[in-house]
Amino acid sequence: MKCPYCLESETKVIDSRESDESTRRRRECLECGKRFTTYENVEFAPLYVIKKNGAKELFECEKIKKGVLRACEKRPVSAEQIELMLDKIESKLRAMHSTEIPSKAVGEQVIKHLKKIDKVAYIRFASVYKEFADVSCFHEEIKNL
User: Fold this and answer.
1) How many CB atoms lie within 10 A of CB 3?
2) What angle separates helix 61-71 from helix 119-129, to the nearest 10 degrees?
3) Is 28 exposed, middle or buried (0-12, 13-18, 19+ CB in 10 A)?
4) How many CA atoms are closer than 13 Å to the CA of 28, on its beta-carbon side?
5) Phi, psi torsion values for 34, nearest 5 degrees
6) Which of 61, 49, 54, 55 is CA-nearest to residue 88?
7) CA 13 to chain centre
8) Three-class secondary structure of residue 60 per DSSP
9) Of 70, 75, 74, which is closest to residue 110 (Cα–Cα)?
10) Long-range CB contacts (< 8 A, 24+ apart) of 45-49?
11) Residue 54's pLDDT is what?
């Protein structure tokens, strides 16, 4: 790490503190003696979603959020519940140890979490995700709940 004052590359760590998203380090330059702070953040490898047609696109949590918000519209589901759910889904997808995830796996995670939070939101999301053809599909899904 280069000193921001004299640009010398020899520094020592005086103090380290962990937080949820980063590590804060107090450093001291061995040349000029000045102190400065650095922050380290984890950089995740990008996730790609493999669509049904084989196309690959960058994973965007915002896309999932839009669908979930639409399914939860006028339902007693808080923004905190949705954010927590999205965090859990992304963590689960990253735990798959692959940078390429089938869209089916993403959809199944959303379905699984929505089912626990709100049954109506689950049915709304499932009707689009599972491409319900008619009312009998709704009836069958509700019966399975």
Assistant:
1) 20
2) 120
3) middle
4) 4
5) -75, 155
6) 61
7) 32
8) coil
9) 70
10) 45/99, 46/99, 47/93, 47/94, 47/99, 47/100, 47/101, 48/99, 48/100, 48/101, 49/100, 49/101, 49/102, 49/103, 49/106
11) 92
- CA atoms 64, 70, 73, 75: torsion sign: negative
Q: Read off the pLDDT of residues 28-74 as tens digits, 9 standing for 90 and up.
A: 999 999 999 999 988 788 999 999 899 999 999 999 999 999 999 99
Give me the pLDDT at residue 42, please. Answer: 81
Distance between CA atoms of residues 53 and 130, nearest Å: 16
Chain position carrying tokens 């599909």:
137
pLDDT in tens, 81-130: 999 999 999 989 988 888 999 999 999 999 999 999 999 998 888 888 78
